[in-house]
Design brief:
Blueprint (H helix, E strand, L loop, with lengths): L1 H18 L8 E8 L6 H9 L8 E8 L9 H7 L3 E5 L9 H4 L1 H7 L4 E5 L4 E2 L2 H13 L4 E4 L1 E4 L5 H20 L9 E5 H9 L9 H7 L4 E4 L6 E4 L7 H18 L20 E2 L2 E2 L2
Parallel strand pairs: 1-2, 1-4, 2-3, 6-9, 7-10
Antiparallel strand pairs: 4-8, 5-10, 6-8, 11-12
Helix pairs in contact: 1-2, 7-10
Length: 289
């Protein structure tokens, strides 16, 4: 308990330092969806990474805690509010055709105080927050409307089929980004202009994070990418249990999903089938089937 209290105290100090004078406008708003069925502890590790930031800019941090019974809201909601975080608590975030993790970004974006919004997932780890955050803000200052950096994995199963899946994932993203010139923004790590993001969403063009890059590019706005290892963000590999049959099913699903979802259009949610997604729950950071 003492170690947890010390961790929370350090995070609180970092949050206060990063926000600075509350009367001042933050340079960026960091928004993180938190699945209450598995990420209430993970978010502390991410907050520990975020609050290692030592640059000159000011940030507010918004958590959108979701996926819990309204009769039993997580006690962490009050704990995290006391730390100085802005908390939005919504028991059921789901909307037809939208990826739940993406949908959870919307209410956080709507209340953000800055036009510069930065998104992570609760299970992410940030290697160098100072370099990453400063680069994002510099991109905004240079007129970029959306930006992203490389995303890799931690806690991966050592099975060969899992390694093959990750290899395919990175290869397919490289082909889309370099050869097809499709911005490969994903939910674990990107930044976007707040007003533009909400406008695209209100126009029905966004139902998944992977819609963001193509949609921003389609209107002629600037999109920037940086593959530097120093700015890499890691996301959990906890969902990948392995198996060659599962890999084949995944490849088939991802190919069909990309064909349906990547085209830019105003009724994006009609083509995702995301309403069929199961409610994700994790115990000891492992998915419950």
């Amino acid at each position: 308990m003492e170690s947890v209290a010390n961790e929370l105290s350090q995070i609180q100090k970092g949050i206060i330092r990063m926000r600075g004078d509350p009367k001042l406008h933050p340079d960026a708003s960091i928004i993180v969806p938190v699945n209450a069925q598995g990420d209430l502890e993970n978010i502390l590790r991410l907050l520990g990474d975020i609050t290692r930031y030592l640059g000159k800019y000011l940030f507010e941090i918004i958590l959108v805690i979701n996926n819990y019974s309204p009769e039993e809201p997580p006690r962490e909601i009050d704990t995290y509010r006391i730390l100085g975080l802005t908390i939005i608590d919504i028991p059921n975030i789901r909307k037809p055709g939208e990826a739940p993790g993406f949908t959870a970004r919307i209410p956080g974006t709507k209340i953000a105080l800055s036009e510069n919004t930065i998104f992570f997932d609760a299970d992410c780890r940030i290697l160098n927050p100072t370099v990453l955050f400063d680069w994002y803000i510099q991109q905004f200052e240079n007129g970029v409307q959306a930006a992203y950096t490389h995303v890799d994995y931690y806690d991966l199963n050592a099975r060969l089929s899992v390694r093959a899946r990750i290899l395919f994932h990175h290869l397919s993203r490289w082909i889309k980004r370099v050869i097809l010139q499709v911005p490969t923004i994903r939910g674990s790590n990107y930044a976007v202009n707040r007003s533009l993001f909400l406008k695209l969403y209100d126009n029905g063009m966004l139902a998944d994070d992977m819609n963001v890059g193509p949609s921003v590019k389609s209107i002629g706005a600037k999109v920037a990418y940086n593959g530097s290892k120093e700015m890499t963000v890691l996301t959990s590999g906890r969902m990948f249990s392995g198996g060659w049959y599962k890999l084949l099913k995944y490849l088939r699903y991802r190919l069909r999903y990309n064909i349906r979802v990547l085209p830019v259009r105003t009724e994006a949610a009609r083509f995702t089938d995301r309403e069929k997604d199961p409610v994700r729950k994790y115990v000891n950071n492992k998915p419950v089937k």
